[in-house]
User: What shape does this take?
Amino acid sequence: MAATPRRRGRKERLNQADIPDDNPPVWPGVLGARLKPLSPQEVALVEETALSLLETLGLSQAIPSMIEKVTAAGGTLTEDGRLLFPRGLVRGAIDSAQRGFTLCGQTPERDLRIYGARVHMSTGGAAPGVFDLETGDYRDSTLADLYDAARIVDQMDNIHHFSRSVVARDIPDNAEMDLNTAYACLMGTSKHVSISINEPENVPAIAALCYAIAGGEAAFRTRPFLTVMVCHVVPPMRFAEEACEVLEAAIKAGFPVQLISAGQAGATSPATIAGSLVQAVAETLAGLVFAQLVDPEVKAIFAPKPLVADLRTGSMCGGGGEQAILMAGAAQMGRHFDLPTSSIAGITDSKCLDAQYGAEKSLAVAMAAHAGSNIVTQAAGMQASLLGVSHAAYVSDNDLLGNILRTIRGIEATPDNIAADVIAQVCRGQGHYLGEKHTFNRMKSDYYYPDIGDRRTPREWQEDGAQPIGDVAREKARDLLASHFPTHIPDAVDRSVRASFDIRLTREQIGRSA
Assistant: This one.
């Protein structure tokens, strides 16, 4: 593959063009990447080791089309069936990758600019269960739960992207589940959506659904509003054959793709944080090479998402400091390569909206975001180590994410912000800033105010019922689900889609007349 030289390590600074016209305290794409847990020497070592592993060890179980493309570009298939990637080929894929692009919403105002160190918050998880909004009990998740999650997120300003969060376990057939998953997500929100697809044979139907909603294949290819997430590897250093076929089919159909490696430290990746990171980077870069060979113009997201296990039990645990620092390191490597990057963060091990939930989620999400991850998945709603989703948590997490985004925005020490002249004026005058025009002008632009977070006095809170934050969030989630039925997909389009596809959500469930 011919490499197109590109400038790496680009420095970015906040400027007025990055701030929306209404000058809010936070916005989609606040600039991160100030956190760098890896030293420059460590970054170089991670990169060199990943390239060496790809060149000398490679990956097994490559599909025939991958073998054909990689070997034609200079790779080698060993006698024991491992596909080797020469470092020139890998560097060429990095250098020629799209440095940034727009993840389109179904409406332009929901578009996300994915480039540089711009940070966006997302859901995610593919959980098999939910914590019931009414009872609080854990139960199997359904297609209706997925649609409900999407339409709550549709109203959350600080959750910028909807990644499929629960599995529709009431649809046992994989093809029908994949199609209806796409429909439920796209009907529930006009924000950009990401889903996974179980089998390559299911890609054409989902593509056809997206083309129908977009108004034609050309319209979708111009503004693709759905990304296909692909775990193209089965760690350690093996390709997932069927997933690679899904990846190839999705790229050819015009979908952006997210290239995911999700080894588990101590089980399917090394127990050390550094070793797990290196393996994930190598596996993700192998996917990038293949994606580039399928289509040099592919919109590909670098998504090394290694997970951490509790080595006492072997079970996955996403709430510890190890997961947080691992994701910050993965995000830093994405920024080092200057690739659109996604990280997994916010996988609290807690089962409810308690102190453990808030502490674990804040730690992991803040670190990945400050390290400059473009899309932080699992940042909202996820509980119980990826096993369950809480619809109420989307509401409370919206506040949490708003506060994290405000910290990413930073201090912005400029002469205007420091306001030395205002300090002098106040000190020579009334001695306080409450009545100053400068204070009034900055109330909305500089300060994030939580939607449901309680800042009243203890007495006021007690007199109003002393509700815990989880109860307040639950009430708001109930209100949203009772009233918000998105209409960005016109009624005629929905009826046409239903005439062509086996859609399991009823018209009544989506708030439309029969």
The two ends are 53 Å apart (CA to CA). Residues 1-11 have pLDDT under 50 and may be disordered. DSSP finds 18 helices and 21 strands in the chain.
